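Predict the 3D structure for this chain.
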Amino acid sequence: MSLPANTEPIRVMLVDDHTLFRKGLAELLEQRGAIKVAGISGNTEDACRIVAEARPDVIISDLHMPPNGGLGLLRQLRAEGWTGPLLVLTVSDAEEDLAAALRAGAKGYLLKDMEPEDVVDAVQRAVRGETVVAPAMTLKLVNLLQGGNAAATKADTLKLLTAREHEILQHLSQGLSNKAIARVLDISHDTVKLHVKHILAKLNLSSRVEAAVFAVEQKAAGQVRRGST
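Done. Predicted structure below.
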């Protein structure tokens, strides 16, 4: 994967207490061309210092590591004023770990058995402001988003969407980016962004990930319809 001319690579910092894993991941990411590994750390204490020096665009951090774990690192960085996205990259597929990461403000929850290309894609999406969850965790994310009558309430709000918004929601459920949706529908990227913003507001959702999961749920229930142009 290469970058367009005059485009700076995304600066990524890796935080993981397993030496072989973090070195191997660094080599894989560097080979993609779109990413530059700006810093590497084996523990959360050193990571805070290195972040200030390396100034990464994105941090990829393990979840469980000394002394206070990836989420402890995130909380400390936020307290120190760092506002960039942190992606959790872990072996844990536990629903409670996913919930804790998203509540703490992580912009992604990735699994260590993912393909390198998928990790690169997650980094690029995080830089664009998206929240990214490993496909294997989708059902667990659905469980987290469901609560009481919340799913039914949101289903009722579908009637608030326009035909175009229904159409875009359908494409979101297929994992398409805003640019890809714009190409499919032959509309501008900014128009898609505006529609997505309206969809999130009408459905009382906070991210594209939530919208995509919700759309999958409602499609299965026969609620999401194909919009017209």
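Confidence is low (pLDDT under 50) at residues 1-6, 148-152.
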